[in-house]
Q: What sequence folds into this?
């Protein structure tokens, strides 16, 4: 199946710094990628839909200036948590849909665990 | 908007026993339905999906799910659970929209397997 890779898997940063998380589709092109946030023992909360070459669509309640999403190519989307604070600590997961072939399946990255001190 | 309910937060079964994880959805028509599995600290892996047709869907790792329109349910089953099945299971629904969809996930059910 299609492979989605996230980097880094783990990141620890100081409060006030910015952190970038990358999501790559390794063997397919993805016009659409999704960014989720998952709190411990809870479901995935959709943060935003990232479309290649256009602005991301954010879900209600998600601060777009706080969580910057860039989808500059068909294989890469990035999430930047700006001026991170401890409450931003979470597990962030991206997923992607194969361009031009909507079988309905989403392919998920391994997730990135962010800890803000 | 669609929604999905997984009423069981935790399910504990003995290895070798049968398993059923419940999922109910709310949507005005027939949505796309999915079950995903997540191991600790990992992303999600698709177990199976239902779009249309046969209401009994076979997936990977010996799992199956049955779509019951009258009950708005899509329960996941496995006849004999293995210790390696211990994980978090998520049901998801997606409202078809122009050939695409955005899924909504349930809160998940944690499966605990006793030896």
A:
């Amino acid at each position: 199946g299609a492979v989605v890779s996230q980097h880094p898997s783990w990141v620890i940063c100081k409060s006030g710094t910015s952190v970038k998380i990358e999501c790559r589709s390794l063997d397919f092109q993805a016009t659409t990628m999704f960014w989720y946030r998952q709190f411990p023992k809870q479901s995935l909360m959709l943060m935003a839909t990232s479309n290649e070459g256009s602005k991301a669509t954010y879900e209600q309640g998600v601060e777009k200036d706080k969580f910057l999403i860039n989808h500059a190519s068909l294989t890469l989307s990035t999430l930047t948590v700006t001026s991170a604070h401890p409450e931003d600590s979470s597990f962030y997961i991206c997923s992607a849909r194969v361009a031009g072939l909507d079988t309905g399946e989403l392919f998920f990255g391994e997730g990135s665990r962010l800890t803000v001190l | 908007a669609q929604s999905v309910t997984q009423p069981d937060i935790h399910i504990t079964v003995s290895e070798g026993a049968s398993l059923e994880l419940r999922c109910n959805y709310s949507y005005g028509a027939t949505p796309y339905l999915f079950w995903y599995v997540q191991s600790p600290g990992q992303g999600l892996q698709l177990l199976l999906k239902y779009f249309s047709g046969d209401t009994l869907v076979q997936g990977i790792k010996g799992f199956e799910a049955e779509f019951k329109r009258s009950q708005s349910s899509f329960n996941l089953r496995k006849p004999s659970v293995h210790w390696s099945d211990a994980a978090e299971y998520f049901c998801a629904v997606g409202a078809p929209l122009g050939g695409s969809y955005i899924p909504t996930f349930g809160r998940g059910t944690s499966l605990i397997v006793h030896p």
User: Anything to note?
Assistant: Chain A is about 0% helix and 50% strand.
